[in-house]
Amino acid sequence: MITDLRGLTLKTPIISASGTYGYNNEFDVFCDVKNIGAVVTKAVTLAPRAGNDWQRIFEVPGGLINSIGLENVGIEKFLEEKLPVLKSENIEFIVNIAGSTLDEYLQLARICDKNSIKAIELNLSCPNVKSGCLEFGTDEDALYEVVSGVRQEFSGYLAAKLTPNVTSIEKIAAAAEKAGANAVSAINTVKALGLKLQYVNGEFKKEFVHGGLSGRTVKPVALSCVNRISKAVSIPVIGMGGIYCLDDVLEFFSVGAEAVQVGTANFTHPDICEKLANDLEEFMQKNGFTQLDELKCKLREEVI
Amino acid sequence: MKKIHKGIVKTIKEAAKNTVYMSFEPENPMEIKPGQFISILCGGLTLRRPFSAADFDGKEIAILFRRKGKGTNYLSGLKPGSEIDFIGALGNGFDVVDKKSLIIGAGIGIAPVSYLKKKLDSGILVGAFMSKDEAPQGISFDEIITNDGSAGKKGSILDHLENLIDNYKPEIIYACGPAVVLRAVGEAAQRHGADSQLAMEKVMACGIGVCKGCVIKVKRGGEINNMTVCSDGPVFRGSEVLWE
Ligand SMILES: Cc1cc2nc3c(=O)[nH]c(=O)nc-3n(C[C@H](O)[C@H](O)[C@H](O)COP(=O)(O)OP(=O)(O)OC[C@H]3O[C@@H](n4cnc5c(N)ncnc54)[C@H](O)[C@@H]3O)c2cc1C
Ligand SMILES: Cc1cc2nc3c(=O)[nH]c(=O)nc-3n(C[C@H](O)[C@H](O)[C@H](O)COP(=O)(O)O)c2cc1C
Ligand code: FES
């Protein structure tokens, strides 16, 4: 199902989300990765990162909270070891990059450009070191500065990935469009605290993880974000958050997403990306839709 | 072959207090070694639940699990003939070496080492439990230790570790159980100049080393690095683990 993201063409609108699919063909042990629209890599930073020390995964009803802390191999090793596999395996990919200063984003963008990487996704949910703990993606001006700066350095397809942890995600999305992004991706994880108490021998034992919530439970939040963003921008929106089945995909299309990403569901059903691509194709064939746009138009007839 | 499988439950029964033995036959033939594990989809839960192979006869895989929460309660409700959806075999198993060995399973940690014992020509299998009724049926122990003294020697495995090593003089100790036990085993082995292989646990998401949800710190070749329990492990040498 040819998917035109205005500047990036994919064979299906089903994309694997950053942080849940590795760097390249790791999920080949479960399905055929080259059959999905694209793999978004784990966030790559300038220097390798060891990530957080404490417990990193905390399951909650309908999802999980993660605090991986952006553990990754760093851009150098990515280019050396991971990129060649993407190329030799013919996997469509988008490199997710993250910085803790404006300069780090710019350097990463420059390196990606120099290495002829076709598409990048800016992870804007990282704390901005300069402004304390504030995330780049929570402030219109900081976001505009990063996205427009990266735009200067990178000539390929540029998607800005937004955090839902803001008052008005549509305003942030508009700033990304103004700064020259080709697309916005939403949503990243929802700030959350996983907590489990146990009363043992007169004391409360606490197990807790501060992190980001994802999975089925965030879908209504994600749908609302994508709905509002699509009304505010004219660039394509790549929707995600809690997608587990074809109905979920169609719901995201109906609120304006042009493509979708699947994250946490890969842990539950590791062959789900390929399966959703097949399910979509089957649904369209069975119901006489020849083009994805036709299906999307139908889904958007009634404005939500 | 892909690592996602369907399986049919063959046997499911109580093996000890709050402990279930379940065997199942994968739809397509596969292999699983001692220390390797599978991860089972449990109803509508987001995360699959990891379990070590407790036995494998070339056809059926057996697991032994303790009822703990939603996932294990779901599994204990399955019946012979029920279908399960699982991924595996995951991780690297024990490195089975032909050396004089002591094999320790503390609590439900007995699951992987009881399978390992079958692959070792010799080796002393020690089971450590809170009480006799926690010791799963069908396992032949060389020694049993119970906290309440209801079977075998009384006390915790930690109390008996030094004596066991002095008695059996192992060149290698294999162990699975709570982190405090593994740590003590690793340290005791080092003190006695023995090697150790410890099967570790961490909450897991992907099971194949990509999400970095299950890392521990490991010292190898003078360098400290993160390693994933699911794919670099779950078995690590006691001398290389940096304990939390
Ligand atoms: C490699 C490996 C092998 C294992 N082998 C066995 C086995 O052979 N027999 C057995 O009884 N148990 C084994 N465990 C532990 C088993 O996976 C947990 O007891 C089980 O996941 C608990 O699920 P629950 O929903 O019943 O409990 P809950 O406490 O409700 O689970 C909540 C969450 O924490 C996770 N979790 C809880 N305890 C553990 C744990 N000890 N390790 C990892 N994740 C945990 C669960 O997967 C779930 O995501 C193994 C764990 C690992 C990592
Ligand atoms: C374990 C884990 C790691 C993640 N790592 C990243 C990351 O490195 N960069 C990023 O932009 N998003 C990351 N995300 C967010 C996902 O890409 C996605 O935006 C979010 O999980 C919502 O989608 P889902 O509900 O389908 O998982 C991560 C999510 C999870 C669960
Ligand atoms: S569970 Fe994902 S890396 Fe181990």
Describe it for me?
The complex is a heterodimer of chains A (304) and B (244). Chain A is α/β, with parallel strands linked by helices. Helices cover 33% and strands 23% of the residues of chain A. In chain A, strands 3-4-7-8-9-10-13-14 form an 8-stranded parallel β-barrel, surrounded by 5 helices. Chain A has a 4-stranded antiparallel sheet with strand order 5-6-12-11, with no helix packed on it. In chain A, strands 1-2 form a two-stranded antiparallel ribbon. The mean pLDDT of chain A is 95. Chain B contains 4 helices and 17 strands. In chain B, the strands form 3 sheets. Chain B has a 7-stranded antiparallel sheet. In chain B, strands 11-10-9-8-12-13-16 form a 7-stranded mixed sheet, with helices on both faces. In chain B, strands 15-14-17 form a 3-stranded antiparallel sheet, with no helix packed on it. The interface between A and B is medium-sized, with 33 and 23 residues. The structure holds flavin-adenine dinucleotide, flavin mononucleotide and FE2/S2 (inorganic) cluster. Flavin mononucleotide sits between chains A (17-20, 42-43, 66, 68, 70, 96, 123, 161, 188-189, 214-215, 218, 240-243, 262-265) and B (205, 211, 213). FE2/S2 (inorganic) cluster binds next to loops of chain B.
Give structural attributes:
heterodimer, A: 304 residues, alpha/beta, eight-stranded parallel beta barrel, four-stranded antiparallel sheet, 23% strand, B: 244 residues, seven-stranded antiparallel sheet, seven-stranded mixed sheet, binds flavin-adenine dinucleotide, binds flavin mononucleotide, binds FE2/S2 (inorganic) cluster
Strand order of the largest sheet of chain A: 3-4-7-8-9-10-13-14
Strand content of chain B: 35-45%
Low-confidence stretches of chain A: none
Structural class of chain B: alpha/beta
Q: Major β-sheet of chain B, in short?
A: 7 strands, antiparallel
What is the count of helical runs of chain B?
A: 4
Helix content of chain B: 10-25%
